[in-house]
Specification:
mainly alpha
Length: 274
């Protein structure tokens, strides 16, 4: 074993011992710090394995483009699958079970609210109906992410954020949470608008402070935060705070989001007291 490898191994052993002690004393802050240190060492060796585009439940780009019924340029659509767009998406980015039409519809509805292209906020519908009240046909519905980010006009972005969080918390299929995080990564990638990008990161903060990423997506989400968060530590710390707490916070009310929206530093109230 070379000196460098031995040092890494020694650090891992030391951090593992510290983590065990922190868990024994129920010291959540220490658990978070030690876990982040372990993940630092983990990503030093494995970062490339968890780049966002390698997430196994994303559709292959060409297959995703082929899901659009009518398209003049499927090649261009495939290339832009994981990059910012001002247009609606024709299908979920992740492979949600085809028989789960409700979740398929919700996935597209969330993106519409992020874009901001409608004048009415999305609300959860029960049973087999989608967000706009029609039978659950994923090709007919698309509302939340872009409305919030300002790519489409909407007067109350706080309402959209609250609906996105509430829907992710209440919907039984946790794949919807992964889908929303994937959509936010898409919309903050190669986004030419600084304001829209900032709002996308604000919504990422709200999501991370409200629920942890599903376990199969956790490392991909953290890898993205480490590479593109500004600063990365703010987002990684928030992610691990939520993971360690093992609790899912309620979605913020519209009043809370209005107060948050009016703060000078938008990210701080999003993290505080959740």
């Amino acid at each position: 074993m070379c000196v460098a490898s031995f040092c890494v191994f020694a650090c891992l052993v030391c951090a593992a011992v510290q983590l065990k002690a922190a868990v024994a004393f129920n010291d959540k802050e220490r658990v978070t710090r030690t876990t982040i240190r372990l993940k630092d060492l983990f990503f030093e060796k494995n970062q490339d394995q968890f780049k966002f585009h390698k997430y196994g439940k994303l559709y292959p780009r060409e297959a995703w483009a082929d899901l659009k019924f009518l398209s003049m340029d499927r090649e261009q659509l495939a290339v832009g699958m994981l990059k910012h767009t001002k247009s609606s998406i024709h299908h979920s980015l992740t492979q949600i079970e085809e028989e789960d039409k409700v979740t398929q519809s919700l996935a597209k509805a969330m993106f519409k609210n992020i874009l901001g292209s409608h004048t009415q906020a999305y609300h959860v519908k029960p049973a087999s109906h989608c967000c706009c009240g029609c039978e659950a046909d994923a090709s007919l519905c698309m509302f939340p992410l872009c409305r919030y980010m300002g790519d489409k006009k909407y007067d109350q972005p706080q309402t959209l954020a609250a609906e996105i969080l509430r829907t992710c918390l209440e919907h039984p299929n946790k794949q919807l949470r992964t889908e929303v995080l994937c959509q936010l990564i898409k919309q903050t990638t190669a986004n030419p608008s600084q304001e829209s990008t900032q709002r996308g990161w604000e919504l990422i903060v709200l999501c991370l402070a409200t629920f942890p990423p599903p376990s199969d997506f956790e490392n991909y989400a953290e890898c993205f935060l480490r590479n593109f968060g500004n600063p990365p530590s703010k987002y990684v710390n928030l992610l691990h705070d939520t993971l360690v707490s093992h609790t899912e916070k309620r979605g913020r009310t519209q009043r809370e989001l209005v107060q948050w929206e009016q703060e000078d530093d938008r990210l701080v109230p999003a993290i505080a007291q959740l």
